[in-house]
Amino acid sequence: LSILVLVSCNMTTMPRFLMHINHMEVLDLSNNIIQGTIPQWIWETWNDSLRELDLSNNMFTHMQLTSYLLPYSRLDSLDLSSNRLQGQAPMPNPKQISAEPESS
Question: With helix as H, strand as E and coil as C, how does the chain read?
């Protein structure tokens, strides 16, 4: 399993089976009513594989992170909009930010 899209399924908690998936490239759990904390295992388990993470339009209030620098080496898209998140927002690792100018 590398792509999982469970949009608008009225889920109220993070699916526990996700903890046992070792490789995930795209996870979209948007437009649900998932409450509580975004668990740390999301940031740890898929560090080398996750490209897109969409947790928008839920009811998350916090994030479990050991650092506020996102550890992902391949992450292209992170959408946490329209939640109830409090505290410091996660930032991309400065080593991963490209400073190349866009070509016109």
Answer: CCEEECCCCCCCCCCHHHHHCCCCCEEECCCCCCEEEECHHHHHHCCCCCCEEECCCCEEEEECCCCCEECCCCCCEEECCCCCCCCCCCEECHHHCCCCCCCC
State how far the alpha carbon of 59 is from the alpha carbons of 4, 24, 55, 90, 96, in Å: 20, 23, 9, 17, 29
Query: Domains of the chain: which residue ranges?
Result: 3-96
**Distance between CA atoms of 68 and 8, rounded to whole angstroms?**
28
Q: Are 44 and 67 in contact (CB under 8 A)?
A: no
- The residue length of the chain stands at 104
pLDDT digits (tens, 9 = 90+) for 17-42: 999 999 999 999 999 999 999 998 88
On whether the pTM is more than 0.85, the answer is: no
In CATH terms, the superfamily for domain 3-96 is: Ribonuclease Inhibitor (3.80.10.10)
